[in-house]
Amino acid sequence: WTFQIRKGVPFHKGWGELTAVDVKYSIERGMDLNSIAGPSSQLGRAD
User: Which residues form a coiled coil (predicted)?
Assistant: First the structure.
């Protein structure tokens, strides 16, 4: 995939301008199986 990051897009809660580094971190964190933000966090609890 190729992403085009527009200049001047504000990051969450005034943390500055969104960068490619921010996007890369978010994608990698979301794919990390050991992260609380990883894919397993999207699954409901099975009883």
Answer: none
